[in-house]
Amino acid sequence: MHGDEPLGFLLWHKYQFWVRKRANGTPLAYVRGYQDWHGRRFVVNKDVLIPRDETETLLKHVLESSEQRAVSSILDLGTGSGCLAIELQRAIPGAEVLGLDISKSALKVANQNAQILLPSNPPTFRHSNLLGIISSDSHFDLIVANLPYVPADLEVMKEVRQEPHGAIFSGHDGLDHYRRLVQELDTKKITFEHLWIEFLPTQKDAIKDVFKDYRITFKADVAGNEFFALITAVDTHLQR
Fold it and tell me: Looking at residue 4, what is its pLDDT?
């Protein structure tokens, strides 16, 4: 872009440093310090999962399903960089959006993104192990749970291995976090209208079993692969 300009000494060494990091498998988003996602530029670092295209499709499904109904309370489980919570708050400004994460370092990144991208109406971010801080008998119009879902023994690219392990892997079949979620929803009697989750297409049958007491509608990504599910209550006592 600037072929007529000389490359300065400091910029040259910075470039060499970036190249070495990429050669060692550091994701490009970590080298740059940001990831463009859903038309916004989100700060990212080694403490947060890099926002994916699949999750942007999940957001599209969530927003489409929310168009014809009132949504005043939203819970984003495993908020990470805060991308889903921030974009949901932007799209539904009248809602109270709460993002939870077990990583305090990730929450610092989420708050930083909120201050940059939505300073006048940021979501609330709090530290919590799944539903740990949520009171029993709570109700949410919408829960988005983009939790870790990769099996522990699944081989992944070396770039992915440099992202937070706890934000990616979840037990031998990848569904330990979702099993805990179902258990905590039941134990704490937390109700909801819609619960959206993301997973691997190969886990579809297992997801049916984990959420066997709920109604499940599967949704596909742009390539037609079923990465997402809308969970709703079968029994009226599970809703308000």
Answer: 86
